[in-house]
User: Fold this.
Amino acid sequence: MASLIECDDVWKIYRVGDVDVQALRGLSLTIEQGEFVAIMGSSGSGKSTLMNMLGCLDQPTKGHYRLNGVEVGRLTPDELAGIRNQQIGFVFQSFNLIPRTSALENAQLPLFYRGLSLKEQRAKAAEALARVGLHGREDHYPTQLSGGQQQRVAIARALVTSPSLLLADEPTGNLDTQSSQEIMRILETLNRDEGITIILVTHEVDVAAYAAREIVIKDGQILSDRKTKAGPIASPVEV
Amino acid sequence: MAAFVWLTIMTALRILGRNRMRAGLTMLGIVIGVAAVIAMVSIGEGAKRAVQAQIATMGTNVIVIFPGVTSASGVRGSQGSAITLTVSDALELKKRIPLLVDTGWSRRDVMQIVYGNRNWNGPINGISPSYLTIRDWSFTSGGPFTQTDLDSAARVALVGQTIVENLFDSGEEPVGAVIRIKNVPFRVIGVLAPKGQSSQGSDQDDVIFIPFSTAERKVFGTSFIGSVAAMFGSTDQVDDLPMAAEQIREVLRARHRLQAEQNDDFTIRTQVDIGKVQEGTSETLTMMLFAIASVSLLVGGIGIMNILLVSVTERTREIGVRMAVGAKRYHIVMQFLIEAMTLSLVGGVLGIVLGVAGAKLTTLIAGWPTIISGNVIVISFFFSLVVGLFFGLYPANKAARLNPIEALRYE
Assistant:
C-alpha cells in the first residue's frame, strides 16, 4: 500500500521581481498513515512553503507530491479544493475562525461545502465540538471564547470531515502555556486513539516533543529526520 | 446544492443585517430607481388611459372633416374659415361610401341663452340628428330630436350639463322648459349626459344642440345656406377608418372639381390620428422617465458593486479560510452573487412598495389618475435581480480568484 504522503525531489521556486527564490530545493519525504510529525526550522527555512504544499494549497514547481497515491501537481484549483475538503484538516496559528459566526457554524463550514443537509451538518459539527470538550458552547461567538477555546473550535472544524491528514501550523503560537498543553493533548489523543496523521509546524521544543517524529528544515532541504518516540506507527499500517 | 444555496442566502442576510446602515445606503440607489420606474410608469399609464377615455368621448370610430381656410391677398384665415363643405357633400358621402355607417354635420356659434331671469353665453350647435349617434351623446332625461324636427325646422333644444347648472335651479327639471336663444323661444326636449373635458381641455358639456335647419334659418342668419362648419362620419371598424378617409378625400375632391395640382380644400382627421398624437406625447414622457429611472438603477448597481468590492477586501481572510476548508470557485462566486442579489432584490421590493405608495399618494394629493400594472412590478423585480447579478459578477469573480495562501495571510 502507498504511503499517505510521498514527496519526491520537490522544488518550489517563486519569482520575486527579477530574482528566483528557491523555497524548496529537491526535498524528498515520506509520511505514513497514522504518524505524528513535527516540522521545525527557522523562519525562511521553507517549512511554511512545505506545509502549504502538503495541505494542497500550493503545488510544486518541479518534482512529485503524491497524497494517498494522487499526483497533486496535476490537479486544477477546484480539484485541490475537493481534496482539501475530503482529506485535510487545517489548524492555524491565528485560529482563523469566521468572525461573528457561532462555534457550531464555524465547525460546520467544511460540511457546508460538501453539500450535506443542514441537519447532518449540525449533528456532525456538534459531535466534533464535543470531542474537543466544547459541548454546550455551540452558540458562542469567537469573541466570547478564550484563545484556547477558539483553537479547539478550529480543531473541531478540522476534525468534522474525518480527514486522513491534520495540518497544524504553529497551533500554540498564540496561546499561553496551559492552553498550549490542552491543545497538544487533544492532538495527541486524536493521533493515538483515532489514528489521524498529524503534521505540526512549531518553533517550540516542548510542543514538538508531543510528536513521534521530528523533521528539521533548512534552506528548503531536510536537515534532519528522526524518530523521537517509538510511536503507534510501529503499527498496523506497515503490516 | 439546495442546502448550500439556502444557507448562503441566510448567511448573506445575516451579513447585511450586521451592517444595516451600509446595506441600506447601498440599496438606496436600487430603491429609488425601482420606485421611480413604478411611480412614473403608473402615472404615465394613468395619463394615457385618461387621454384614451377623453378621445373615446368623441364617439366611436369617428372621422371629422373640416373645411379649408380662406385666403384673401395671401392672408389666410383660420382652419374651417372657408365655406367649402355643405350638407349635400355629407349626404353624397353617405350615399357613395358604403364603409361609412352614417354622416352628420354641424355649425356652431356662441350666443346668449336666456331662461327666466338668468342668462348664459354658450356655444349653439346646429346639427343633424345623426351627429348625436356618431358622437355618442346620451341623455340623462328626455331624448334626441328627429329627422321630422330637422325637416320642419322645429324650435327644440338639447342642453348640456354646464348649461343646466348655469340656467336652472338645482333640482329643477329642464325638459319641457322654454329657453330663448337670440330671442327665439326653444323648448328643451333633452338633457345630455356629461362627457367632461375634451382631449384639448375644453368643456364638452357647455353645449346646446338645435336642429341644423332651425339654426340656419332662425338663429345664425347664414348667408350661405347649406354650408357646414364640420362634417362627421363613422365606420363599423377602427381598421376601416384610413380607407374611409381616403375614399372621402376622393369623393370630395371630385365634387369640388379640384385639379391634380390643387391642394385639398378640406382637412380629414380620424379618431386614430387624434389618438396617436396624444398617445405619442405621453409615450415620449414615459420613455424619458424610464431613461431617468434606468440611470438611477445603473447608479444603484454601481453602488452595490462598490460595496461588494469593499466587502471582498474586508473578508479576504474569511475567503481564504473558506477556500482552505474546500470551497470551490463557484462556491465563492455564488456567495458574493447571492449577497449582491439579496441587496438588489430587497432594494427592489422596497422600491416597489415605495413606488406603489408614491403612485397612490399622487392620486390622493394631486388627483392624477395612476394605473399600477402587474407587468411593471414584475419587470422591476426582474430588473433589480439582473442589476444584482450583473454588478455582483465582478466582485464575486475577484473573490473567487484569490490565492488561498495569500488570502489566509492577509492582514
Summary: Helices of chain A lie at 47-54, 77-87, 103-112, 118-131, 147-159, 177-194, 205-208.
